[in-house]
Amino acid sequence: MRGNILTPDGWIRGEIRLADSEPNTIAAIDGQACDPTDNGDDYILPGFIDLHVHGGAGRDMMEGGDAPHVIACLHAKHGTTSLLATTMTAPVEDIERALDAIGGACKERGRNEARILGVHLEGPYINSGKLGAQPPFAREASMDEVKRFNGQAPMRAITVAPEIDGHLALLRQMAEAGIRVQIGHTTGSYEDGVQALEHGATSFTHLFNAMPGLHHREPGMAGAALAHAQYAEIIPDLLHVHPGAIKAALRAIPKLYCVTDSTAAAGMPDGEYMLGRQVVHKCMGGVRLADGTLAGSTLTMDQALRNLVSIGLSIEDASRRVSTNAADYLGESRRGRLAPGCFADLVVLDRNLNLKAVYIEGEVCEP
């Protein structure tokens, strides 16, 4: 593959070669440092990494069965090379059904599918006062239950409302088990957020959404994120968060990363779809409950990249926000960057940032 290649050290105009002995990895990148504005070649960027995916192609992760494979295929066609399958707040039997299917999909990636790295358990350990579009099945966390869930599918991230009695003590246990704990769907205060970070939480789920906002005398949970977080996820569909708020978060949070929070409606026409046990409506470019509440998105990561560039980010910075920072957050050192020894997860884009090709672990993702 030849073009303007974004490496950890900057742009190189040249070619990427895959390893003969391990064809799913990069063997070498050869070429010269360049300014890509000086030529008309394609852009070659690290594949996108999405840590918050509920659905796509008309399917929802909570369905179980082959839904994770269908969803991973839809997002691969939009440049996502790896993702976290994200669950909904639900009765335990619904969650277990979803995890059985996700666990199988984690073990075996199908052709033309993004790699499913594990699970983002978004609930049920959230606050019933900030459900957002989550169904009303929120409850207190249990480490025994988390361990059981982890036996079905790898728990890579769990969203928790830290202000609920008993949750602070569990944050440290989850972190010590290697699970990334995220603060979200919370009514907690600034002080609750600071305490949660001190007890092992490491990120904030869809920053600004389903949490108390920033006020100059009551900084709220959003204020805790802006003042103290190293990582946080944000939805850049330009509906969930105003571009000005995105820019504020970019200045405050060093490794802010983007997610789609995509639903079954992603890649589909307007109409009704399921999000867990909830009926959602795709219309006017978004997804909503019947009362108008935003309920996830129709965003794909290629559009997320274009949206970031449209509000003023460089391609290099936008690429970090849709790939590298998420990989770093999960500790995936061989993903989210183009360098020898890394997985050959990459996207090729034309000068208008439209996708031309997607490679997942060295394999071409066919249209």
What does this structure look like?
Pfam families: Amidohydro_1 (PF01979). The model has no long low-confidence stretch (mean pLDDT 96). The protein has helices at residues 67-76, 92-107, 143-152, 167-176, 190-198, 220-228, 243-252, 301-310, 315-330, and strands spanning 2-7, 10-18, 26-33, 43-46, 48-53, 55-56, 59-60, 80-87, 115-122, 155-160, 180-183, 203-204, 231-234, 255-258, 271-275, 278-283, 286-288, 346-349, 355-360, 363-364. The chain contains nine helices and 20 strands. The chain has a seven-stranded mixed β-sheet with strand order 3-2-1-4-18-19-20, with helices on one face. The protein has a single domain, classed as TIM Barrel. The chain is of the alpha/beta class and 367 residues long.
Reading off the top of the CATH hierarchy, the class is best stated as Alpha Beta
Order of helices and strands: EEEEEEEHEHEHEHEHEHEHEEEEHHEEE
Q: Over all CA atoms, what is the radius of gyration? A: 20 Å
**Head-to-tail CA distance between termini:** 18 Å
Let me know the CATH homologous superfamily.
Metal-dependent hydrolases
CATH architecture: Alpha-Beta Barrel
Number of helices: 9
Percent of residues in beta strands:
25-35%
Task: Report the count of strand segments.
Answer: 20
Structural class: alpha/beta
User: How would you sum up the global shape?
Assistant: globular
- Kindly report the average pLDDT value: 96
Under CATH, the topology is which? TIM Barrel
Number of domains: 1
Unreliable parts: none
| Fraction of residues in helix | 25-40%
Query: What does the main sheet amount to?
Result: 7 strands, mixed
